[in-house]
From TrEMBL:
PANTHER family in alphabetical order: HEXOKINASE FAMILY MEMBER, PSEUDOURIDINE KINASE-RELATED
Origin organism lineage: Bacteria, Bacillati, Bacillota, Bacilli, Lactobacillales
Entry's Gene Ontology molecular function annotations: ATP binding; kinase activity
Organism name: Lacticaseibacillus zeae
The protein's name in its UniProt record: Sugar kinase
Keywords: ATP-binding, Kinase, Nucleotide-binding, Transferase
Gene3D superfamilies: 3.40.1190.20
Similarity comment: Belongs to the carbohydrate kinase PfkB family.
Domain Carbohydrate kinase PfkB: 17-305
Origin superkingdom: Bacteria
InterPro entries in alphabetical order: PfkB_Carbo_kinase, PfkB_dom, Ribokinase-like
Length: 325
């Protein structure tokens, strides 16, 4: 049993240690646990909440590594199946001095892409407060998409609050049009939607935060809140029937790696809401953990403990003042 659950494809990540070298030319790599939904589960657990991760792994060294890493990070693995028939996904990521790193996936036909939806019927939802859904898992196969929809039905049946992060991975979809249509349809099922402004351009044809928010609030009676991530600027928040507002982001001395920042944002928002904090305070925490994430090389290595988070907020909020408009 846990307070939080998510479903996804965990990945063994080989991150280059050779700065500004292409994946072709890089020689030195370090292995990490990665995957957007994994990142959220790890961060939720690190902040003291129980987290459950749902997936399927291959019976191979990468699958064993992922299970060990999840357990080391106190993420529960009750609903992780293993199969000898398919392999566990992995990926390569280069190291850059500025900008976003290049990523190459080895995941087509993976164990998670052959996820058995019967696993979902074993889940104990009795203590779950929040479920986080991402647009990545439904992109990896039609089988995963069907399981994703089944999980949504179960979450609604048990009245569990859901967040949805589009988490665009165009290389996993047959076309940009199918990606946008499918993800916008799935977004209708979430109470809280967490797009980035750059994702809005691909999904709704606009980078304007209010336009993005209005699109998702208007397309579904279930959706109550849209929080648009706008990088270092912070986030734009709009609730159904209300005026939107901005919450400023935090400045960092050096950006090491932007991967994992959006997942850090999600886990910050979710954990704060689970703790009964106000929406504005939840978005402040989300921005803070996003700032932590961009200062570390691994996808989830930079997520804070409660003590580290509080120290960061105490220091930075004093400098920024109380006005986040």
């Amino acid at each position: 049993m846990s307070e939080f659950l998510t479903i996804g494809e965990p990945i063994a990540l080989f991150a280059s240690q050779d700065t500004d070298q292409s994946l072709k030319d890089a020689l030195n790599f370090r292995k990490y646990l990665a995957g957007a939904e994994v990142n959220v589960a790890v961060g939720v657990s690190r902040l003291g909440h129980s987290a459950q991760y749902i997936t399927r792994l291959g019976e191979d060294p990468f699958g064993d590594f992922i299970k060990d890493q999840l357990r080391e990070n106190h993420v529960q693995t009750d609903y992780i199946d293993s199969t000898p028939d398919y392999w566990t996904a992995f990926q390569l990521k280069n190291k850059v001095s500025t900008g976003d790193p290049d990523i190459f996936y080895f995941r087509r036909g993976s164990a998670a892409a052959h996820f058995d939806a019967k696993t979902l019927d074993r889940i104990d939802f009795s203590e779950v407060k929040f479920a986080h859904l991402s647009g990545i898992f439904p992109a990896i196969s039609e089988q995963a998409l069907a399981a994703f929809r089944h999980l949504i039905d179960l979450l609604h049946e048990h009245n569990i609050r859901t967040t949805f992060d589009p988490n665009l991975r165009p290389q996993l979809w047959s076309s940009p049009q199918k990606m946008a249509a499918t993800l916008n349809e799935l977004a209708k099922e979430a109470e809280i939607i967490l797009p980035g402004d750059n994702e809005g351009e691909l999904l709704v044809g606009s980078r304007d935060p209010e336009t993005i928010a209005d699109f998702y609030l208007n397309q579904s009676a279930r959706t109550q809140t849209v929080v648009v991530k706008v990088g270092p600027k912070g986030a734009y928040v709009k609730n159904k029937g209300e005026a939107g507002y901005w919450v400023k982001g935090f400045k960092v001395a050096q950006v090491v790696d932007t991967v994992g920042a959006g997942d850090g944002f999600a886990l910050g928002l979710i954990t704060a809401l689970m703790e009964g904090k106000s929406q504005r305070d939840a978005v402040i925490r989300a921005n803070a953990i996003g700032a932590f994430a961009v200062q570390a090389p691994g996808d989830n290595d930079g997520y804070p403990t409660p003590e580290q988070l509080q120290a960061f907020l105490d220091k930075n909020l004093a400098v920024m003042g109380d006005d986040f408009e």
